[in-house]
Design a protein that fits this description.
The chain has 467 residues and is an alpha/beta fold. It is 49% helix and 16% strand.
């Protein structure tokens, strides 16, 4: 299935139709759907598709490229000649591109660059002196975010300035995720989004067929299931010391969110721990969170960015004995279902921010930046936290929001609380209030909306507007 990448596909096809040389950079975290997008784009078009090999030598990668060229020329990878070096292979691609419009894809480009460190310089020379005069459509794709941003798109890269377009492929939003399971209701699709994080590969592997509980029991809470092994397999594939990274993620999942706390839990110095955390940040597994409007500093905390990792580390380790013995179904309601509203809190906040940024059809304000905020109420001597704070182009004007993923209707007291918290955030600010609720609102709060005091959005409304 191919969903929700129509905009990227349209722009790639527009550039293909232009007729000139193109160098397209496609990057994004692993499993996000980059390869599916590229393969969909290449359908019916002359294409040499070369996927570089992880932890293989330059010679092995050259052999794979030779086979890809052979497959394009005569459809036979087994009898295709092996080129002596990459220069010869690229010369053949040049010759073919002179004859017809040709797409040349290098998937997992960071793997090739590691095996053949001069490859970027070679490509730079070809682009500058040969390929720019052809109609070759070059695509460089990679999952290593830091490598693609620094060593392909970055100023110091030999390839800097050679790209004609770049596409950072992001995880899907709640709206886009719901397209995969149109038979599920708003709440069920929220759970699917909260579990998979909008990663198409995980949505497909979860394979919900009307019953989310059964899908989880069959496809995640089972030692033989693909998703059960996914976090450890990904860490082993991407990292040299997976046990240390696993310990760091586990510490954060257990509520240790500051660098010093994580380091103590893992048992290492903060300076050493920060290096491992930087790697997990580059893989989009972790995220660094700072209150909106404030600079990174002592208030900065760390969280699990990837919802699938967050779900796995929240529910699998604590139930591993039941899973391994095949008794997870017996305790599922107590071990999973009863904890889902609490788990979904942060997910729902993310869904609400996405709604305001992309799908709100009647916004009260223009949003410049959006996030969360926490600080100290000096008057009450306590910590306060605001789910949504959005800045606007007008100084000292803000959108302040609350997100409630619970079974009870939200009442007028939530608006009063928001007003108090907003005064702590900015004493003389002008505020626009919005409250999101899974289960609706009381009559008093609905009356406040009619009076123009607040904007109210239910999960049902969010779903109706996107389905």
């Amino acid at each position: 299935m191919f969903y929700c990448r129509e905009n990227e596909l349209k722009k790639m096809n527009q550039r293909y139709a232009s007729g000139g040389f193109e160098c397209i950079i496609v990057y994004g975290r692993r499993r996000v759907g980059k390869t599916a997008l590229i393969r969909r784009f290449c359908e019916g078009k002359p294409t040499i598709y070369f996927s570089a090999l992880l932890e293989e030598t330059e010679k092995e990668n050259l052999k794979t490229l030779s086979r890809a060229i052979g497959a394009y020329k005569n459809g036979d990878v087994l009898t295709s000649p092996e080129y002596r070096n990459f220069d010869d292979a690229f010369a053949e691609i040049t010759r073919l591109a002179m004859k017809e419009k040709l797409i040349f894809v290098i998937d997992e480009y960071p793997y090739l660059a590691k095996a053949a460190p001069t490859i970027s310089s070679r490509l730079q020379h070809l682009i500058d002196h040969v390929w720019s005069e052809t109609s070759l459509y070059l695509i460089l794709c990679g999952s290593s975010m830091s490598f693609m941003e620094n060593q392909v798109l970055g100023y110091e890269s030999p390839l800097y300035g050679r790209r004609t377009a770049q596409f950072k492929i992001e995880p899907m939003t709640y709206r886009e995720t719901a397209v995969f399971n149109p038979d599920l209701n708003a709440e069920q699709n929220a759970y699917v989004y909260g579990i998979t994080g909008g990663i198409p590969h995980y949505i497909n592997k979860l394979n919900v067929r009307g019953d989310l509980k059964q899908a989880l029991l069959d496809n995640l809470f089972d030692p033989s299931a693909y998703l059960f092994e996914e976090p450890s397999n990904l860490l082993k594939q991407e990292l040299r010391e997976p046990a240390i990274y696993n310990a760091i993620i586990t510490a954060i999942a257990e509520g240790h969110t500051r660098m010093s706390e994580i380091a103590v839990k893992v048992g290492m110095e903060s300076s050493a721990c920060s290096k491992y955390i930087s790697v997990l940040l580059s893989l989009d597994i972790l995220k660094k969170v700072t209150p909106v409007t404030e600079k990174p500093g002592r208030k900065t905390i760390y969280g699990i960015s990837d919802p699938f990792f967050r779900f796995w580390y929240r529910f699998v380790p604590q139930n591993i004995t039941a899973i391994a013995s095949g008794r997870i179904e017996q305790i599922y309601d107590r071990a999973v279902i009863s904890q889902m509203p609490d788990y979904m809190g942060l997910i729902f906040e993310k869904m609400c921010r996405e709604y305001l940024l992309f799908y709100d059809n009647a916004p009260d304000v223009q949003i410049v930046d959006i996030g969360e905020w926490w600080g100290t109420d000096e008057k009450e001597k306590k910590q306060v936290q605001i789910d949504i704070v959005a800045t606007t182009p007008i100084k000292n004007e803000f959108l302040i929001g609350s997100c409630k993923f619970r079974n009870e209707k939200v009442g007028y007291d939530e608006l009063e609380l928001l007003r108090r918290y907003a005064a702590v955030f900015a004493k003389n600010g002008k505020f626009h209030f919005v409250i999101f609720s899974k289960s609706g609102f009381t009559d008093s709060l609905l009356a406040a909306e009619k009076a123009g005091e607040v904007q109210l959005v239910t999960l049902s409304k969010m779903y109706q507007e996107i389905s």
